[in-house]
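INTERNAL TRANSFER SHEET
From: sequence group
To: structure group
Subject: Glucose-6-phosphate dehydrogenase assembly protein OpcA

Please process the attached sequence and return the structure record in the designated field. Keep the field labels unchanged so the import script can parse them.
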Amino acid sequence: MIIDLPATTTSQVNAKLVDLREKGGAVTLGRVLTLVIVTDDGERTEEAIEAANDASREHPCRVIVVARGAKKAAARLDAQIRVGGDAGASEVVVLRLYGPLADEGASCVVPLLLPDAPLVAWWPFEAPANPSQDPIGQLAQRRITDSAAERVPAKALTVRAKHYADGDTDLAWTRLTLWRAVLAAAMDLPPFEKVTEATVTGAGDSPSTELLAAWLATCLKAPVKRVKAADGQGIVAVELKRRSGSVELHRPDTKVGTLTQPGQPSRRVALQRRSIRDCLTEELRRLDPDEIYENALKGLDKIVRGRAGTKTAAARKAPAKKSTTKTTATKKPAAKAKPPKPQS
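Return from structure group:
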């Protein structure tokens, strides 16, 4: 059920929620948290709401969407309440703020918060430089951003590291859960040797590749090189060098990876890129600070930058191409020297 409340107030929205609960039996007391989604009003707003609805099936919650509209318009609040099949296992309140109200999202959210329930703030697209100092971020116990959705992901990740506060997290970090699990399991098998060097290859605009390299640098206490892949999306390959041989995890198609270890047959591992719904569901399982993510952010400065790893084979052929070019170049002057000299 979807109920539209144009040109309304938060008091009227709250009264309508109470009325729906009494008449329709929507049990607000069963909500474990309040999820506030902060975004600009547009087509992508529905993508975030859909992901929150799917995540609410594991974490029943009240979802409040702060959709900021045109700031030059007159001050107006248009609300929409979704319950039942249109809201998953949650109740969704969409607040579209226009004019001066577009910057007053926190004031509009406070009257709709569930009593004694933790608050999680999520910026699915562009996020403030310092989420913990944002008016809505100050209300939240947990603040979720996504560097991959920013215009310049690498720069956004650097900003996250600079302004990190307890409770901050990034979906670019959550996408690494499967990679970290496979690599940790591989290192738990014999031979138990120290990693002397590591290489992480991925797309140039992949913040997850940066975080994986930083995590390895802090955990292994060894040099870690971050290499830009010539093609492919996200993380492409990881190589951990040890004295007896390298442990390699390669995923060329963003779906299935191949794990290679010395003395063992190659194994195929499911490494499909995780959806927003899966990442959001995982992040809502904990409300305490993520110390591992904090250490990974600190390890960004320890990464050594390298050239594209997938170009290695091409680079080996490069000298042959250069020599052919030189030969052709030397022939041309000789050809020009052949014309006979003019007779005097």
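Handover comment: Confidence is low (pLDDT under 50) at residues 309-344. The chain has ten helices and 15 strands.
Transfer complete.
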